[in-house]
Design brief:
The chain is mostly helical and 330 residues long. The chain has one domain. Helix content is 75%, strand content 0%. The longest helix is centred in the last third of the chain and has 55 residues. The radius of gyration is 27 Å and the shape is elongated.
């Protein structure tokens, strides 16, 4: 009856997948996004330096710009050190704390193993596909069981939820089949998948029509709710892994680029060591100055690219079941 039903989440995935905004915010490699940002800055600064807005008669402002870039990049390197210390502090645990954290993850996997009768994979990609497949099977069993049990109105309500969950699970599995297996790629598939409304509707159905449901049907509804909750738990856990990985990569790249940037800007200060003001011609300045300034802004470009994705992921996974937000439903 509702076999052609497509959820709003699926439609949003289709609409946003592949757009330039999604590429900029999420899909694009962060170093490439940082490189494009730096290239745009270089073009803009070069156009300004070659126009009448920059006559290059008083070069003292460039001296202040270079000093500011050096100071700012040293601050960014300090931030990178702070990020590294933060990540390190999260990993320094006592044996009891490590055991407690490990037992929590093991218990979560055991609950899924008991509910499905199978041992889930250990890789994020395989584990998430396993969860979507088991959720899909639970939803189909619920729909098949209620087809002859309930009156048409109640069955249509349940079938609509079942169709929505099934279609979304199929869509997620298809996207995961195309994923490369990295933590972020696996996580990105679930960014527009929040089951708070589905769980709410299932609980409402159970509450409003409980007198018409067989015990087996109520049990299947409860199991389906648990599977949907397991998907959100996995998503939040993989988000934590991704954030640790991403911040570690950002910290390392800021060290590399920050040091190279500071060295380049310090080298640029040498043009001011000539007694007459600068040691290069005015025509060369229109090329050299934009290039040095752009290199000096590379750490900011890199930070912009990484924080853009981290902030987007955090925003789209801000709510934890059983709650959701309007932004998370887009």
């Amino acid at each position: 009856m509702f076999s052609g039903f497509r959820s709003s989440d699926d439609a949003d995935i289709d609409r946003t997948k592949g757009t330039w905004t999604e590429w900029l915010l999420l899909d694009g490699p962060r170093t490439l996004v940082a490189g494009i940002t730096a290239l745009v800055l270089l073009v803009v600064i070069t156009l300004i330096s070659g126009s009448e807005l920059a006559p290059f008669r008083d070069l003292q402002p460039f001296f202040y710009i270079f000093v500011g870039l050096i100071t700012g990049n040293l601050t960014i390197i300090t931030v990178a050190v702070s990020i590294s210390q933060l990540l390190l502090s999260k990993e320094l645990k006592t044996p009891d704390e490590l055991r407690s954290r490990m037992e929590g993850v093991v218990d979560y996997r055991k609950e899924i193993e008991t509910a499905t009768g199978r041992v889930p994979p250990v890789e994020p990609l395989g584990f998430l596909r396993f969860l979507f497949e088991s959720t899909r099977q639970k939803a189909q069993r619920l729909g098949g069981l209620t087809i002859s049990e309930l009156d048409e109105d109640v069955y249509e309500e349940i079938d609509q939820v079942v169709s929505e969950v099934t279609n979304r699970a199929d869509r997620m599995d298809a996207l995961l089949q195309e994923a490369d297996g990295s933590t972020f790629t696996v996580l990105s598939v679930t960014l527009t998948t929040n089951y708070a409304r589905d769980i709410h509707r299932l609980r409402q159905l159970k509450s409003q029509h409980g007198d018409q449901l067989l015990p087996q049907t109520e049990e299947l509804i409860t199991d389906l709710v648990h599977r949907l909750q397991d998907i959100d738990i996995a998503r939040q856990y993989f988000k934590a892994i991704y954030l640790r990985e991403e911040l570690a990569v950002l910290s390392r790249h800021l060290f590399y680029i920050g040091l190279a940037s500071v060295a380049t800007v310090i080298g640029g200060l040498f043009v001011f060591t000539e007694a007459q003001g600068v040691s290069v011609s005015s025509s060369s300045l229109t090329v050299i100055m934009p290039l040095i300034i752009t290199i000096g802004l590379l750490p900011i470009s890199l930070l912009f690219a990484f924080i853009l994705r981290i902030a987007t992921v955090s925003q789209r996974t801000a709510a934890t079941l059983p709650f959701t937000t309007p932004r998370q439903e887009k």
